[in-house]
Amino acid sequence: MNEYDSNRIYDSVKRIGFEKTDNYEDANCYLLNTCHIRDKAKEKVYHEIGRVKKIFRAKKKPLVIVAGCVAQAENQEMLKREPYIDLVIGPQAYHKINDTILNYTEKQKIEETDFDAVSKFEYLSRIKNQSSESSSFLTIQEGCDKFCNFCVVPYTRGPEYSRPFKQIINEAKNLADQGSKEIVLLGQNVNSYKYNGFKLSDLILEIEKLNQIQRIRYTTSHPKDMTDDLIDVYKYSKKLMPLIHLPVQSGSDKILNLMNRKHSIKEYLNVYEKLKKINSCIEFSSDFIIGYPGEDEREFNQTYNLIKELKFINSYSFIFSPRPGTVADKLKLIDKKKSLKRLKKIQSLLFKIQIKKNKSLENKLLKVLVENKTKDNKRLFGRSEYMTAVILEGKEDYVGQTVNARIISSNQNSLFGKIDQSNNKKVA
Ligand code: SAM
Ligand code: SF4
């Protein structure tokens, strides 16, 4: 979501004359968009500002802006602790960015951290989303009312807010007209989207009507909001990708309860089975928090066994990180060495599953959306339907096209192959 936000901030500040630069030693404004989900985020920001200070020691100081969730959580504190920072702007106040910059004077530092998602999206919808990527993000929902005991999101992104249906469809049309072939719908709880009776399932089916759009994804979902209407979309949709990122966090009901997750393993498995029944090729990825206070060998083994059973792909796993202001911040931590050992065990299992999955695709033909050229400009970078990175031999003309690719080799994170000419006559 920060990537989407950064692009939208750029769409806005362009109007007052800013241009992106790769030579940031020459920049006259430096904006740091920050994430607060796990520990050390705050320290990383100060560290980064320290680096900027050094770069600009002998030059005119740039305007330094800290945006995002660290800005929201720390607000005035940041301006006090690091006078090099000029403006602090929280994630629901980006509609004020241009005025804030224009009104800034060296004598008065500014902090904008109101929660005003309505005004933000009204403002941003009047400014064209200029993304010209083959795969574009589109935020449909922000904030969260679920208050899991470990999570800062309800405090930094604010209460749940769903954007108006039409506003989203207009942005999707716009992205399609600019060349997007894939739309990734975003929200902290993307499947809790509701606006005047419209749900995520309605949005998917409406976006599906856009001819230029070939692929639709959404992230991140909460298991409790995997309602039957959304599950049923997998029966009809031709464009919804068969990978569902559905964080479970733990395989133990006891831990889920301590986390205030509001779903049980049985409920999670129920969703899993319903979807597999519709299409057995659907795969799941997840997030896991390891070493949550109260996690014993028994609970940890339940998580391990759940991964073994469901064979999640492309998952994320983290050691629990206490966040200021959350309920879990005050809980007694389990031994760090133990958590680390458990994390390694979980990751080794997740990686093994991923390597095996990728290996099984060798010699097969896959549909790949070619997104761009690789950094060295020599090959093409694309993604499979399951979001796996695919590196291909082939000409630049294929960028923006979905091609059939023969997979030749693989490793844990990527597949390598070549475009199958015989199968791509129509698109080549
Ligand atoms: N809304 C989604 C859900 O409920 O499943 C998750 C969104 S959250 C922004 C992204 C992920 O960060 C979570 O799934 C969780 O695994 C991880 N996370 C959040 N707070 C954390 C914490 N305090 N320590 C470790 N990981 C955390
Ligand atoms: Fe955080 Fe997701 Fe829980 Fe909301 S539902 S509090 S975003 S982990």
List segments where confidence is low: pLDDT < 50 over at least 5 consecutive residues.
none
CATH structural architecture of the largest domain = Alpha-Beta Horseshoe
CATH fold naming of the largest domain:
pyruvate-formate lyase- activating enzyme
CATH class placement of the largest domain: Alpha Beta
Number of helices: 14
What best-fitting shape do the alpha-carbon axes yield? Answer: globular
Name the ligand types. Answer: S-adenosylmethionine, iron/sulfur cluster
Strand content: 15-25%
CATH superfamily of the largest domain: tm_1862 like domain
Walk across the major sheet and give the strand order.
16-17-18-20-19
Count of discrete domains: 3
Helicity range: 25-40%
In this structure, how is the largest beta sheet organized? 5 strands, mixed, barrel
* N→C terminal distance: 33 Å
Roughly how many Å is the radius of gyration?
A: 22 Å
Quaternary state reads single chain
Mean model confidence by pLDDT = 94
Work out the number of β strands: 20
